[in-house]
Amino acid sequence: MSVTFFHICFILALCSVMEHSSSSENNKKLALFKESSTVFARKLLLASPDNEGRCSKDNIVIFQGPSTPLPSGIPTYTVQVLNVCVAGCSISNIHVRCGWFSSTRLINPKLFRRIAFDDCLVNNGDALGPGDGLSLEYANSFPFPLSVSSVSCI
Asked: 97 exposed, middle or buried (CB, 10 Å; 0-12, 13-18, 19+)?
């Protein structure tokens, strides 16, 4: 099994939040990551009887940041889509608000594709299990704002 940078970041974030969970009764924590002089917040849900098995679009988190530009100079951006639920919530049909999303670099349409204006489909509509995620890279002169619009809980 290949361990990627994405997996390491996810595990470190989860461990960091779990370390601080004993000092707070709130099961929603923020883990902050600094990359390229920009701070991003990622919400993680801890396993507890209150949230186990609950499913909502809030369990899907999108992280986006700049990557190394293409040789032609076109900026690239890495996108990670994560199911931050710890147990009991597989989520499918993940739709993302994405405007007129396009990329000069080919993206596998089974991972991410625009199906209409402001509607992109993640993972070909297939489920992301608890703790699962996917990563893709696109190239465009500007980043597209991406946010979850709807999901199906299975």
From this structure: middle
pTM, rounded to two decimals: 0.68
Query: By three-state DSSP, how is residue 22 classified?
Result: helix
In tens, the pLDDT along 125-150 reads 999 999 999 999 999 999 999 999 99
Q: Which residues contact 130 (CB under 8 A, 6 or more apart)?
A: 83, 85, 86, 87, 88, 89, 90
Per residue in 58-92, is it b (16+ CB within 10 Å) or e — as a string? ebbbbbbeeeeeeeeeebbbbbbbbbbbbeebbbb
Contact 92, 152 (CB under 8 A): yes
